[in-house]
Amino acid sequence: MSERAIRGSCLCGAVSFEVTRFEGPFELCHCPRCRKVTGSSFVAGVRVLANDFRWLSGEAEIDVFELPLRDHPPPYRTAFCRHCGSPTPPPAPLPEDFEIHAGLFDDPGVPSPDRHIFVEHLPTWDEISDELPQLDLPALARLRGFIRD
User: Fold this and answer.
1) CATH number, position 92
2) How far apart are the C-alpha atoms of 137 and 122, rounded to whole Å?
3) Bridge partners of 63?
């Protein structure tokens, strides 16, 4: 990739990768699944295209957990380093576009977040203190074209 690539890695360094361009959006997701997978108030996820992504090391060190479809679609899939448990990008075959947890990037250059999503699930012990747009499920569905006004 180019010398402008931004590198990322897991906590122990066994898994590393680089991204040459961010597709966006960069969303702060407050849904219950994302809160559970991080143990925090939200996942800070930035979307990239597979063509702008390259593994540097450790793809074989990734495990995947797939939560089956439960109450409603979609099912939930998360990838993580089998050594340190840190989230990772998904292993091959890569989807055309996917989300990477922004905290995995080692280098500066990650864009700023675009919005908060699923804000109706914001835990009572947290509050949003920035000026980013705050979208609940219906607003997000309209934005993504799933619901027309």
Assistant:
1) 2.170.150.70
2) 12
3) 80
**Per-residue model confidence as pLDDT tens digits over 41-81:** 999 999 999 999 999 999 999 999 988 766 656 668 899 99
Instruction: Indicate whether this model's pTM tops 0.85.
Output: yes
Tokens encoding 88? 């990772």
Parallel, antiparallel or unpaired: strands 115-117 and 6-9: unpaired
**Residue 1, in any domain of the structure:** no
Write the CA distances from 140 to 30, 57, 68, 90, 147, integer angstroms: 12, 35, 23, 24, 9
Q: What are phi and psi of 143, to 5 degrees?
A: -60, -40
Q: Is residue 46 within 8 Å of residue 110, measured between CB atoms?
A: yes
Query: Structural domain tally of the chain?
Result: 1
Would you state the structure tokens that stand for residue 111, as one six-digit string? Answer: 């864009």
Q: Are 6 and 40 in contact (CB under 8 A)?
A: no
Does 148 map to a domain? no
Is 61 a member of any domain?
Answer: yes
Are the beta carbons of 115 and 96 closer than 8 angstroms?
A: no
At position 86, the amino acid (one-letter code) is S
Domain ranges, residue 76: 6-143
